[in-house]
Structure formats: C-alpha cells, structure tokens
Predict the structure.
Amino acid sequence: MIIDTTEVQDINSFSRLESLKEVYGIIGMFLPILTLVLGITISVLVIVWLEREISAGIQQRIGPEYAGPLGILQALADGTKLIFKENLFPSRGDTRLFSIGPSIAVISILLSYSVIPFSYHLVLSDLNIGVFLWIAISSIAPIGLLMSGYGSNNKYSFLGGLRAAAQSISYEIPLTLCVLSISLSNSSSTVDIVEAQSKYGFWGWNLWRQPIGFFVFLISSLAECERLPFDLPEAEEELVAGYQTEYSGIKFGLFYVASYLNLLVSSLFVTVLYLGGWNISIPYIFVPELFEINKVGRVFGTTIGIFITLAKTYLFLFISITTRWTLPRLRIDQLLNLGWKFLLPISLGNLLLTTSFQLLSL
C-alpha cells in the first residue's frame, strides 16, 4: 500500500486549521463575556467611590482622599483587604448553605447583564423575552440571602433572610406589572424597547408615556436593591447586620458587591425602559444612522451610544445615592404596607390603563 505524503500533509494542515478555528471560536465566545465582566467590575468600583464622595458632600465631611488621586483607589484597597481576610464559619451552622448563599446572590445578578443593550445592538444576548428573563433571574437572589441567613444558625441572620424574601416578593410584583405595561406598548426585547423610543428623541421616551409606571418602577427598584429607606434586611440597629452578621472575608465582600451590582443593573434597566437607552435626545437623529459612513464612524457611533447609556445610568445612580443619605429608614410594617397597599394597586391600575389604550388604538 502506497501512501501519498502530499495527501497526508494536506490532511494534517486541514486538521490544524480546523483546530485553530475552534480555538478562535471559543475565544470569540468568551471575549465579550470577559469584557462585560471587566466593565462591570470597574463600574462597581466607580460607584463605591462616588457614593463615598457624595455622602461626604451631603454630610459636610471629608471623603476618601489618600488612596490614589482623589481617593479613587480606596474601593480597590478595601476589596483587596477583604480577599486576604480569614473566612470564618459558624460552628453549628450549615456550611454548604453558608458558602453557596453569597455565590447565588452574585451570579443571579451577573446573568441579568446579558440582556442589557449598551449601544446599537451592542448586547450580549438579544432575546425576545429579555426584560422578563431579568425579572426571573433577579428573583433567585433573595433565595441566596435566605440560604445565608438560615445557614448561619443565627436568629438575627435568619430574620434578615426572611425580611429579604418578604421585601423581594412585595416589590417584585409591582415591578413586573410596570415592565408588563412597557411590553404591551412596545416589545419584551430590550433592544426593541430602546428602538421604539428613538423616533421623537427626548419626547419619545417611555417616561412620558408611562409616568405612573416610572415612579412605581423607581421605588420598587430601590426596594429590590435594599437601599435606604428600604434596607430592612440588614438594619444594623435591629438585626446587627442581618444575613451578613456571621460573614467575613471574601464572602462578606460578595454581598457588598452584589448590592452594588443590583443597583447598577436596576439603573441600566431604568435607562433602557424609560429613558431611551443609547439614543440622544435630539429628535429624528438616530446615532447609528448618523455615524454609519464607514467602519470608523460605526465604532464612533457605538462609543457615543455607550457614553449616553452610562450618562443616563449614572444620573439615576446619583438620585439613588442621594436618597440613601437623605431619607430615614422605614419600619417593616410601613415597608410592606407601601408595597402591598399602594404600589401594587397603582401598578395594576397603570397596567389596565395601558391595556385600555392599546385596545382603543386597535
């Protein structure tokens, strides 16, 4: 049997080429995810620094100023310190639940970023049910908090986990009804919702079509993030620190990161659902159409879209941070009454009103 060496070389080169294609395919799949995670991490550090500076300004005191220029590296120094601190476990607690709880809280929120469009079709996964996927995934986070509270074998931690679950259920229903009102008017895809607001610029935002839903969504998202005046699950005066009481080191840092990740994702969804996303406020000017002359123009248009999205997001973040350092904490009965007796009927009425307008327009 005679073997042609040329054919063998061709087969080997073809197999090497196929292997390289597979490697490049894997790199191409993971590169957007890694870029998104890196951007989110930097954003969280910026938010921590902003909150410290804004709170210092409101309380007329000096904020972080020694770690890096203007104290911008203080959050990075705190994170590094938590990484190297010892992880302690309760002697009579459930070690598995105690360890899994923080991971569930962070991962469930990180998955929500996959459906957020940062610019024109610059989204990790454009799904037809993008907004409802966010609601479904974000519902998992309180389960992690409940597991953490139960696994700590501490009555204060367990009460904090129960409060987190009760608060999440109370405010998730009005939040979902507001999103459903947006979906009835536009679509359930986050990209389609932004594009539907692009025709009339500033006046085409859903903020003007759904003003009631906007304020209900604003309050509900703050409650979902457990920010003051809704931080009942970790009330220091009553529960020492709630579900975080027994945690130390990197596990405590994961809870800290999860709260800011949740705040950022809520701010991004406010921008996408009500503030026009990546679109500028000048009517009849659509960013991709303005810069699609060549590849350089498209890159510039995408950059402008990202900048506009982040500018609107950080405006809402400023409002959230200011609210935290301005209003006092509610009682648990006031918090539940606000959710069930006020926000739920208002959001339901807004949904019925939106449905009526849709039926009349047909």
Summary: The radius of gyration is 24 Å.
